[in-house]
Specification:
Elements: H1 5-28, H2 39-42, H3 48-65, E1 71-75, H4 83-99, H5 103-138, E2 145-148, H6 154-164, E3 169-174, E4 191-194, H7 197-206, E5 208-213, H8 218-232, E6 241-244, H9 246-252, H10 255-260, E7 272-275, H11 278-288
Parallel strand pairs: 1-2, 1-5, 2-3, 3-4, 5-6, 6-7
Helix pairs in contact: 3-7, 4-5, 5-6, 5-11
């Protein structure tokens, strides 16, 4: 006996809706997502090797696309201010002391004046990078692109100097607990972000033709000594490693003592050069590669 046509139609619609709902639930489930589009899947510990590979490949393919084969790495403190910023900070601290001469305000003024003194390193990094970028723009056959850590301080100065000279530059940012923002002077297509320090360091050194280390803290020292270790052990080719401001570096690190104690060879000191002006640092690179000035 046939049922009521209207009831049959309603049951058919209900059954169809149940099927659609079931399909929707399946499609919403994480197991249905494409593997490369499933962030929860990709962030598992078991997928770390995949993330490492992806983090290496993305900048690699972009830089290959733009034929970036030679770079100059500029390291240094993220905490140095530009001369303009430092001057403003001193003026503000002086004003606060004039209004309320408390010990805290006095200490703030001391710090501001130290920042103003150290702003010379920002200016020097900016000038050095402008020299390198200007040379590269005029000599494309031996061009070397400025590359920095992409953040503030000396990193910003390096990218800024390259932009001042009409050149391109690279910024390798890193995700940190206190989020690092890219500085505005990086060439947009060369502004990368990393999670893994190791992969970031690989990209610093893979195309490096020189490294210029301005005064800095733990991060600068880490990058400097990893570079020296790789060159010393011949894991990387010899390139100029230039320490800017000889007095600062010799006060910070007693390299001669390491030789005296026998923990490095006297010849290892030849891996390091010093410069006290941007022009001197740039000339050391020109001389190393026997390039015309």
């Amino acid at each position: 006996m046939s049922g009521d046509p209207h009831q049959l139609h309603e049951r058919h619609l209900a059954s169809a809706q149940q099927s659609l709902d079931a399909i929707a639930r399946l499609q919403d489930h994480s197991s249905y997502r494409l593997a490369f589009a499933d962030n929860e899947f990709l962030m598992q510990d078991e997928l770390r090797h995949v993330r490492l590979q992806l983090e290496y490949l993305k900048p690699q393919l972009v830089l290959e696309q733009y034929n970036i084969t030679a770079t100059i790495v500029v390291f240094g403190s993220a905490r140095f201010l530009s001369p303009e910023q430092a001057k403003t900070a001193v003026a503000l601290a002086e004003q606060q002391c004039a209004e309320n001469n408390t010990p805290d305000n006095q200490q703030a003024l001391v710090r501001a004046k130290k920042q103003q003194a150290n702003s010379k390193y920002y200016a020097a990094a900016q000038h050095f990078s402008a020299l390198a970028a200007r040379y590269s723009c005029c000599n494309p056959d031996c061009a070397m692109t400025i590359i920095s850590g992409g953040g503030p301080g000396v990193m910003e100065a390096a990218n800024r100097g390259a932009m001042d000279a009409g050149g391109e530059s690279i910024g390798l940012n890193i995700v940190l607990p206190r989020e690092q923002q890219p500085n505005p002077y990086i060439t947009p297509q060369f502004c990368f972000q990393f999670h893994y320090f190791a992969i970031r360091k690989m990209h610093f050194l893979q195309r490096a033709r020189a490294l210029v280390a301005f005064p800095g803290g733990f991060g600068t020292l880490d990058e400097l000594f990893e570079t020296l270790t790789l060159i010393q052990t011949k894991k990387a080719e010899r390139v100029p490693v230039i320490l800017y401001d000889k007095a600062f570096w010799q006060k910070l690190i007693n390299f001669d003592m390491l030789v005296e104690e026998g923990v490095i060879s006297a010849s290892d000191l030849e891996l390091i050069q010093y410069a006290d002006t941007p022009e001197q640092a740039w000339q050391l690179i020109l001389d190393f590669y026997q390039l015309p000035g």
